Amino acid sequence: MLTLDKIYQASYALKNVVRKTDLIHAPNLVPECDLYLKAENLQVTGSFKIRGAFFKMSLLTEEERSKGVVACSAGNHAQGVALSAQKNGIKARIFLPSVAPISKIEATKKLGAEIELVDGVYDDAFNAALKYHKETGAVFIHPFDDYDVIAGQGSIGLELMEQIADADAVIVPVGGGGLASGIGYVVKKLNPDCKVYGVQAMGAGGMARSIAENNLCSLSSVSTFADGIAVKSPGEITYSICLENVDKMVTVSDDEIAAAILALMEKQKLVAEGAGAVSVAALMFDKLPVKGKKVCAIVSGGNIDVNILSRVITRGLLTSGRLTELTLELLDKPGQLKEVSSIIADLGANVTRVQHNPGGENTDINGCRLHIAMETRNHKHIEEIKEALTKAGYKVKR
After folding, report:
1. Count of CB atoms within 10 A of residue 181's CB?
2. How confident is the model at residue 364, as a pLDDT?
3. What is the pLDDT of residues 292-340, one digit of tens each?
């Protein structure tokens, strides 16, 4: 069973292996609350996952070590297991879903583990790893549904209670629930008045649904770019612990996650992956009752694939109203573009692209459509531009 003693034991075992990550004050990120960020994205291997993996491995017998370990992961747990196995001199075989980012696959290989890619998502890799475990006797290092792994993740909770003992709320990303279980258990034992909130991606809200329905359930599919929390089925152990220690579960969209990643980069100079940014996204988009409270958000990982980072940034700019596109219907005559550009420039926006198309069958014969892409400050700024263009007699289609 999970106990504080076990979590203190895990913290001791990890003291020379992991970093005690910084608690960063971020007052400008979400002005409505007094926000602090627990930067596990700056942890060894770029994620909290090494905590649970190493502690689990530190408890293995010599006989168990000789058989090796097996794990399944979308990437972060894989790296945690690989490094832990390397430090303990244990052979590791890791099954990853084929959709895992290449960067995470390559990072795991470099740490010395044997890699096998499985078609599908995390749960498909899980089944393949379980089959290998039964066939070979290798010790299965579960990414979340294991008391020892949960205790390792709970060491973050102990650090938090030292760094911000008077917190009113802690916000935790949730996939299978190991991180929320460990942190939630510690926080509720040491500061029962502190709220613990879990956050999932809308396209992978298995734990949120299970808690809402008061019944452990599995999703038929998951859809989110936050691969670190793209889990169909929460764990039985984690569900039970979260049910008791997590006060509320919420979900955020991929667009909201992208906006949070962008905000963390711009305002805090922190790179977070999708799974790591969901806690901040929930605060930015007012999903939780934390106005005026002292809040800690766990930024659980920073291993975002650079190949999708530019797309995520663009989506974040669109979601936050920093980029927009408008289509205007107007008469095709000299001076129109100059006047439109002047209106936009006078309001402080920056035009980045213009496309002129002749009118279609539903427009005037001498009409045209003007597509304009521009950089703006926020959604309010976009509305100001639309209003000014409309007032000047232009028909704004979007």
Report:
1. 35
2. 67
3. 999 999 999 999 988 889 899 999 999 999 999 999 888 777 888 889 9
Cβ contacts of 42 within 8 Å, gap of 6 or more: 19, 21, 22, 270, 302
Q: Would you tell me how many other CB atoms lie within 10 Å of the CB of residue 24?
A: 17
- Helices vs strands, H then E, count in the chain: 15, 14
Q: Are 6 and 44 in contact (CB under 8 A)?
A: no
- Let me know the angle formed at the C-alpha of 109 by 106 and 112, rounded to the nearest 5 degrees: 155
User: Residues near 65 by Cβ (< 8 Å), separated by ≥ 6?
Assistant: 88, 89, 90
**In 3D, which of 242, 398, 247 has the Cα closest to residue 325?**
398
- Tell me: do 269 and 368 sit in the same domain: no
- CA proximity to 85, closest of 46, 112, 105: 112
Q: What are phi and psi of 138, to 5 degrees?
A: -60, 145
User: What is the residue-wise DSSP string for 230-265?
Assistant: --SS--HHHHHHHHHH--EEEEE-HHHHHHHHHHHH
Domain span including residue 58 = 49-140
Residue type, 380: K
| pTM for this model (two decimals) | 0.89
Is the same domain home to 273 and 342? no
Going by their DSSP bridges, the two strands 195-201 and 367-375 should be labelled as: unpaired
Which residues in the chain show pLDDT less than 70?
Answer: 359-366
380 shares a domain with 251:
no
Q: pLDDT tens digits for 146-169?
A: 999 999 999 999 999 999 999 999
pLDDT of residue 335: 82
Instruction: Name the residue among 264, 228, 238, 277 with its Cα closest to residue 104.
Output: 228
Query: Domain for residue 146, yes or no?
Result: no
List residues with catalytic annotation.
49, 300
Q: Are 39 and 299 in contact (CB under 8 A)?
A: yes
Tokens 């999932």, located at residue: 200
